[in-house]
Amino acid sequence: MAGKASSSQTSVGGLGSGAVSHVFIHYPPLRCNIPGSRGFYYDDGNKLLISPTSDQVFSWKTVPFSPNAAPNIDSITEGPICSIRFSLDEKLIAVQRSNTSIDFLHRETGEVFTHRCKSESESILGFFWTDCPSCDIVVVKISGLDLFAYDHASKSLALVETKKMNVSWYVYTHESRLVLLASGMQCKSFHGFQLSSAGIIRLPKFEMVMAKPEANSKPVLASEDVYIVTVYGRIYCLQVDRVAMVLHSYRFYRDAIIQQGSLPIYSSKVAVSVVDNVLLVHQVDAKVVILYDIFSDSRAPISAPLPVLLRGFSRSDSFTSRPSTKESESLQASDSNDNESIVYGDGWTFLAISASSSEIPSVLEFLQRRKLEANKAKQLCLAIMQTMILECRPITMVAKAMDVLVTSYAHSLKTGTYFKGIKTERTPSSVSNVSGSGQVIDVNTGRTDGLGKSLQRESAPRVNSVSASDTEDSSSLEPSKISSNDTQFDGGKVDIGAESCTTGNPLNASVSDQQESQLTSPAISPDEMYKFVFAPIEEEMIGEPSYLVAIILELFRSANLEKVKVHPNLFVLTIQLLARSEQYAELGLFVINKIIEPSKEVALQLLESGRQNFQIRKLGSDMMRQLSLHQDYVLLLVQDGYYLEALRYARKHKVTTIRPSLFLEAAFTSNDSQHLAAVLRFFSDFIPGFRSTSDFFTYYHILNEMNSSSVVA
Amino acid sequence: MLEYSFSKPNSSRSPSLVTEDLRSFISKIYTVYSTNSASFMGLSSIGTASDGMQLCIFDLRRGQHEGQELDKILYFFPADLPFSTQLSVIGLSEGLITFTRIFSPEAACEVIEAERHSHVFYEAEPDIWMVMIVEKSKDSEAIWRIDALREVLKEIHSLFVMFHGSIRALLEREPGGGLTRAHLYPFIMDYLRDFLVGKKLQLPSFRDCLMERRSVQMLTVGREAAIEVQTLVRILESSAGNLPCFSLILFQDLLVSTTLSPEDTINLYKYAVLRLTPLALSSGAKSWSYLRKGNSSSHVSIGSTLLSTGSVSEQFYGSHDASPAGDNRYHVTRPLQHDKWFKGKDGFLITDIWGGDIGSLNVTTPTVWLHQTEERMYLCAYQYKSLTIILLIPLSSILNGDQGVSILKQQLLENASLKILKVEEKLSKGWGGENAYHVSGYRYLLVDGNRDISRASPPTKVTTLSKESLLALNRLREEVDAEKSRAKWDNPGREKDLEVCIRAKNNAWAVARITGGKELYMVLEKANETLLYASDAVEKFSNRYCSGTFSLD
Question: What is the pLDDT of residue B38?
């Protein structure tokens, strides 16, 4: 089997950086041979791949994914298995045996206890573990939710709370911590709860939209048609409307559910997944994947549809038969033989796709939102920027692009992701759970705030039950007051999650990638902007100095808006460019209005460039003085022959480091005996012992000669 | 009797030594050149007819033969003076120039101070001289600074060159001189009308000692606004495609940005302030409806008693300002004509000065001649609220003339209008109003000679000063002018630092500090008695508003 299967080669039109296929499958795949396997389950709470046999449970960690990893094996009692999930601390294994009972196995002691429904009429639809402070496990029944706390001492479940309602079926993802309960004739009425570490939020009841095929028929919504997805920390629900052939999207807020519009579908079978905050709609019949970036307002796909290529599988149902745990990762698990299973981790790379798009600023925006392969995204952004400038694209476009990058950097500074990427793995993973204590779920507070809270929470006993490995993004529900087009999403929280697991994708973390994946943000600092964009093209752009100045100016503008400092060399470069094209009037304005910020380097460059223009040199020496670079200023005065002014200045600002001979020499070359006498007198008066130095004697002698010769003449 | 003073014939010689010889020498020259028997002593009576001011331009290379003397006169104000009188004035000037060149070939006569007149000389172009004669009347207001008057001459000439090219070039184009006279006459008349107060010409006097004519006043902007302005400049220039072009941006009457050389900036800035800025336009707006009625002749005749030409010289000067559209021998544009610029619907400023019909909006685009590139440029002015933008595009780079210009204007609007809006808003927000640069307790003038920029107390504040203070400062400035020109000769290329503090009769301090090419003049009226106090006040001002430039010790 080929290691890298490119489904399509998207060419990167003139934008540098070799083309990358949009998807490739990690090789080698995970192979396992488990006799008597009863299929595969994916536990999204712990990111485990589980394969039970009649008396054993094999589990593989999928983060990091390693094809050679040996599975963990736990023994369980024999019996039917409806579903299986590990507790979040991975100490317990819960196995649903029937619609009335769940077995709990303590992995260390092997103890087993069974939880049963109180009445026969109650049927268990499923269950999941939660990091909610008040309970550990939630059991979904047709009559509602039962919230239990696990009592370590008595090794039993204690009922904490019951939420009564009719439930036809439910969907839950651990990533969103959201459970949606369907009810009604058409199963289109929904109750929702978010059970996160910040507490339980009950969402208002809402209805999903379904088109009617005919007057009297009423289609029933199936659980397969509803997906909970988390994009940029926001929670959405996507619902397939098979009649209208559209995919409706809803966004969840704390107090409202707001429909966000619909995407067309081209296949009766549709699967939805999210990779790196990009929504992938798999049109199974049409054998294509269409990619959307929900963040941007546009409902247009971010690229042309990409073909789905299923390789080596006799059965093509890997998309449609979703594992019962409703995982939303793009994981393909299929048993090809009786017992042998091959699991591929596939990594989606959107960089090439985006590079082929024509709207460059929006491409950069898209790239800047990438969390996976942040380093590649960053490299590509730099390359795009550089190419734009080299190709002399319209200034307004480059300005927009610049805005995108600078804004993104400023944002990453605020949320702290930029430095996080630089200092690797600073915080231990246990701090990952930062969801605000008691506040609302929206933990959009500052970074330091978040850390402070997390430390507090660490001391609370509840935290210990939170599994250290549970580090994925926890999603949040914002109050709907913040309208959906509000661009500030819950970055802080998402990023902190990302910190300890390095990448969000469970199946992507191959070892070689890990090093560069340390970068959690593709944000580009002004220093990098200078080093990797401007410095390399400086030579090539010599022919277009005014264009380059315009671009630099745009960078200054964006940076100034975001209160970001730019690299000081850019100021020097600007001076060089303006001086080279003899735009002295502009250069003067740049300096006077402090567009070029004063610094010693800048002052020196002004002096250098001022060799051709007296005014510019003047600006340089004025800057020296204003920066209180006294010694340099005095030297400059002496060099220019203003030695008397230099002396006065030196006296005022107590510059004592310059040798008297410099002044004396300057006075001597000006051939003015009065001045020379004045300078001699100055040093005699102010430097103790000067009269006995050789300088004194030399110039005293010279002075006498000058005087006598002038008398003779 | 006459007294002569030569600013710098030769530094070591005292002018008084040559006075006697000079007088006889001049009278000899005078009789040679004069066609008229007017006596040497008659000179002092010339001014009576013209409110105390005469202005002439003549070419030393012309009219060197007897009977051709009139040839040398290129311009004379007032024009209704008999030629004999005109020639006697010019003859004296010519004689002095010739004489003083013996001692100082590089820089001849700069000024003659006579008992009742001052003669201010300016050699505008090689051998083309401008002379202004002002009368020292009993009127106590008639006290001026010679350099300020010379600045007027410089300004007339440089503005003229900007629109019509050099005088020498015009003379070469038409050696008869008619073309030159036809251009000079209306131009200077239009220019002088700006000095009319009532029916009197009011030339710069001691009351204007806190301003510097040939300099640019700039708006102080913050970094953010400055960046916005500069990005606008880039957009403006890029909308002209790859053509090399220049721009000038003003806010109110203050310069915000320029890409021109200092010399061209001063000229265009001056023209903008005179005719293009919102303030200049609004002062003309009143007569707009008046003009539309077709009553143009009466509109031009404002102050006609003073500025109209007499019948004698009408033919000589070729063009008559009362008939701009008349059938002259020469087609002469009058860029300084009043009330001729209007703001079009698209925001561009239009005028029919260069031809065309303002009613049909089909006008010829104005052109100016740039000193820096020595090239003729189209001038496009755009105005949005307080913002005036001037764009200059080389004539040679636009092939299909006015049509090409209008396409360019269209592009400009498309590319830059949003940015212009933004910049105007930013600048308006930061604008401190008319008195933004007033510093209470101080009346000052700051001149940056390196960059030809000046800033001064607002005129309304300067008027609060007493006459004594202003006279004292005027006197001080004259001293400084003399000192500066002496230093320029003694030690060319070197800047001299200078500090003078004088106490006026009314106990005000007049202070001048010059350092590194920058000049600060100041009047402190309510100041303490001690010199230390005055010095401290200057120090404070320097540190606060001039980033310490004038803090000497």
Answer: 34
Chain B nearest C-alpha distance from A673 (Å): 16
pLDDT of residue A167: 92
> DSSP assignment, residue B393?
E
Whether B259 and A652 lie within 8 Å, measured CB to CB: no
Residue A69's CB is within 10 A of a number of other CB atoms, namely 13
Contact between A566 and A526 (Cβ < 8 Å): yes
Return the biggest CA–CA distance within chain A.
133
- The span from the CA of B463 to the CA of B461, in Å, is 5
| Strands (DSSP E) found in A154-287 | 156-164, 169-173, 178-183, 189-196, 199-207, 226-231, 234-241, 246-252, 257-264, 270-275, 278-283
Integer Cα distance of A620 and A605 in angstroms = 8
Query: Mutate which of A554, A593, A628, A639 to test chain B, going by most B C-beta atoms within 10 A?
Result: A593
> Mutation test of the interface with chain A: which of B229, B235, B451, choosing the one with the most A Cβ atoms within 10 A?
B451
Which residues make Cβ contacts (< 8 Å) with residue A705, sequence separation at least 6? none
Q: Which of B472, B527, B465 is nearest to B500 (CA)?
A: B472
Residue whose token pair is 């300004």: B155
Q: Which amino acid is at B368?
A: V
Give first-to-last CA distance, chain A, whole Å.
104
Contact B231 A622 (CB under 8 A): no
**What are A625-633's contacts with CB under 8 Å, separation 24+?**
A625/B548, A626/A598, A626/B547, A626/B548, A627/A598, A627/A599, A627/A600, A627/A603, A628/A653, A629/A600, A629/A603, A630/A654, A630/A655, A631/A655, A631/A657, A631/A658, A632/A600, A632/A603
| Nearest-CB residue to A588 (from B228, B451, B494) | B451
**Which residues of A lie closer than 8 Å to B, measured between beta carbons?**
394-396, 399, 546, 549-550, 553-554, 556-557, 560-561, 583, 585-586, 588-590, 593-595, 614-615, 618, 622, 625-626, 641, 645, 648, 652
pLDDT for B211: 92
Chosen from B230, B266, B498 to mutate, greatest number of chain A CBs within 10 A? B230
Closest CA to A354 of A377, A373, A335: A377
Q: Is 70 exceeded by the pLDDT of residue B400? A: yes
Phi, psi of A335 (to 5 degrees): -95, 115
| Angle, CA of A149, A153 and A155, to the nearest 5° | 60
- Which residue blocks in A640-672 are alpha helix, DSSP H? 643-652, 660-669
| List of long-range contacts for A635-640, beta carbons under 8 Å, 24+ apart | A635/A662, A636/A607, A638/A662, A638/A663, A638/A666
Contact B257 A625 (CB under 8 A): no
Confidence of residue B232 (pLDDT cuts 50, 70, 90): very high
Q: Which of the pair, B25 or A151, is modelled with greater confidence?
A: A151
What whole-number distance in Å separates Cα of residue A193 and Cα of residue A207?
15
Please list every residue in chain B whose beta carbon sits closer than 8 Å to the beta carbon of residue A389: none
pTM summary value: 0.70
Residues in B closer than 8 angstroms to A394, CB to CB, are 238
- Of B258, B450, B516, which has the smallest distance from its Cβ to A585's Cβ? B258
For A556, the closest chain B residue by CA position comes to B227
How many interchain CB pairs under 8 A, A with B? Answer: 71
Q: Is the pLDDT of residue A335 over 50?
A: no
Q: How much is the pLDDT for A277?
A: 77
**Partners of residue B129 on adjacent β-strands:** B58, B123
- Our CA-based measurement puts residue B494 at a distance from the nearest CA of chain A, in whole angstroms, of 9
Non-local (6+) Cβ contacts of A642 within 8 A are none
Has residue A151 got a pLDDT over 90? no
This complex has an ipTM of 0.82
What is the DSSP annotation of A86-120?
E-TTSSEEEEE-SSSEEEEEETTT--EEEEE-SST
